[in-house]
Amino acid sequence: MTSSLYDISVASYLQTVGAVAGFLEKGRAHCEAQGIDLNEIVQMRLYPDMLPFTFQIVSVAHHSLGALKGLQSGKFGPPGAPGDLDFAGLQNLVAETLTALKQATPDAVNSLEGSDVVFEIGDRKMPFTCANFVLSFSLPNLHFHATTAYDMLRIKGVPLGKRDYMGMPRIKM
Asked: How many angstroms separate the CA atoms of 124 and 117, rounded?
């Protein structure tokens, strides 16, 4: 069995970002039902030196749709400042990310196979092939930030489980 660049990137991004959309909605509903201020969630950190929930969700969008744009342009960098997003704004960002990812076609993405992408941060440059960028940089970052956001919601008592994190698997039809 071979996996295409589309399979390892966009299809994987759709699964994880779709799961994030689902657990954000469960988080919103739980917080509203329990009287937890959603702004408290948006600003929360797991530890003082970690970036807040807002950054985790912005990074989910950045390491999925932003990574796809990086594959297309050949350049990728860290996410910009998250701005002043409230919980609804974060949900909207995730919804917009899903919509844009669904517009990517296998042919367009697979045509990038063998191309290069460079991650640039300051003067540092890390060159990758597109596939290695997705497998060794983009997906690990996507899962790190999705997991961190999931864990922040769990700390607040949101009733989430493994299925909420995994999203919809790509089962054989």
From this structure: 14
Q: Are 45 and 89 in contact (CB under 8 A)?
A: no
Task: Give the alpha-carbon dihedral of 89, 93, 99, 103, to 10 degrees.
Answer: 150
Q: Please tell me the distance from the alpha carbon of residue 44 to that of residue 57, in angstroms, as a whole number.
A: 12
Is the pTM value of this prediction over 0.90?
Answer: yes
Residues 54, 27: Cα–Cα separation, whole Å: 14
Taking phi over 0 as left and psi of -120 to 50 as alpha, with beta for the rest, 114 belongs to left
pLDDT digit string, tens, across residues 24-76: 999 999 999 999 999 999 999 999 999 999 999 999 999 999 999 999 999 99
